Amino acid sequence: MSITAEKIVPITKTDRERLVPFLIRELKPKGKLITPFNLISLPVILLGLVLLVIRFAKGLGSITNLSQEYPWGLWIGFDVITGVAFAGGAYVITFMVYVLGMKKYHPIARVTILNGFLAYVFYAGALLLDLGRPWNVVNPIIGNSFGVSSVLFLVAWHFMLYMIAAFVEFSPAVAEWLGMRRLRRLLGSLTLGAVIVGITLSMLHQSGLGALYLMAKPKIHPLWYSEFIPILFFVSSIFAGLSMVIFEGTLSQRVFGSQVSSEHHSSHDDIVRSLAKVCGYTMLVYMFLKELDLVHGKEWTYLNTGMGHWYLVETTGFVLIPCIMFLRCTATGSIRMCRVASILTLIGIVLNRLNVSIIAFKWYEPVRYVPSWMEIEITLAVIFAEILAFRWIVNRMPVLREPPAWARESHRLEREDVRKERVIWKSSSI
Predict the structure, then answer these.
(1) Rounded-to-integer distance, Cα 256 and Cα 400, Å
(2) 60-413: what CATH class?
(3) Residue 157, C-beta contacts closer than 8 angstroms, at least 6 positions apart
(4) Residue 427 pLDDT grade (very low, low, confident, very high; cuts 50, 70, 90)
(5) Where do the structural domains in the chain lie, given as residue ranges?
(6) 219 against 140, higher pLDDT
(7) Are 199 and 99 within 8 A, CB to CB?
(8) Is pLDDT of 388 > 80?
(9) pLDDT at 8 over 80
(10) What are the CA-CA distances from residue 354 to residues 122, 236, 240, 347 (Å)?
């Protein structure tokens, strides 16, 4: 169902009594209820809720294969470590738009921020599932047990602060949806500061997740352990996030095509090619660091083993090949090749993060951790729930479509303020 900006009922200061009816009306489903996606996702989510009740009632051992030897499993390896890498597009795109002033990426800035925010909210929620005592998650915040020497303490604060920053970045869309003009102007003035804080936090915790595994050197296969692993996690989050932007952008153009403006439609292919170019060159940097680490650590003797062959599958099939495809599609202009390369890259990121956290972790043990079907089911439930939340927001708020007419002037003024700030930064640096 197409929803134009003009159909959003503005809630002005003199008309606040309409806010509650407006919200009740917006909570109603929009579009068809019986769709293939709904028929698949809703049963998965309901079953996931049942399993979560069992998990919190009877403990982790009731539905997972986790143990003292393998305390971290699929929920950490995929939901958190992989999911955060996929959300990296938010800080990259905001850096391009608000700091470097690349206007052509502005149409995808808001939807990318939304994707990053939802990813952190749902994957932080998934993190609670993996904690034996989830109520202790507040300890690093309230000071009961700060643990300032722990990398997890750092990551916890980064997660919390980044979710706040991402919400502030996206909040102007919420104010536009509600028609709150004064609040929209206030939130718009906070955007640039929130973007700078968000970029800083993202760079820190992307590498911070890799730093967790610096303490597990004896447990990780030498082909995947590296002193550069924080840098590798950070660099890979750039092309992982942008590949997710390309992949999601393709789906959004089809699913939400009626909401996308003609200008955005016409610029989509150019944006995809530009992002593919960034992905390609970033992957070259990543491959250089990987090869440098392989040579410096003299680990090439492992390449002619089973784990070595698996390492080559990851680095060649899902890094080198998509890298070549990205660079090739920027030269030929083939959008289809860019999309295929983005899918291969996303698969490669999944393999890399799971290799570090699960597959190559304690690779020498005769009995290995294998996730239970219930762990996989709950992971799918989290993913489907995130997609439903994304669809609900996009169908109601000005994320892909143009903002309401009264907010367009605010958008113009904000962009002018950002340009002035960049001029001040450049002059002060000189």
Answers:
(1) 8
(2) mainly alpha
(3) 140, 141
(4) low
(5) 60-413
(6) 219
(7) yes
(8) yes
(9) no
(10) 19, 14, 14, 11
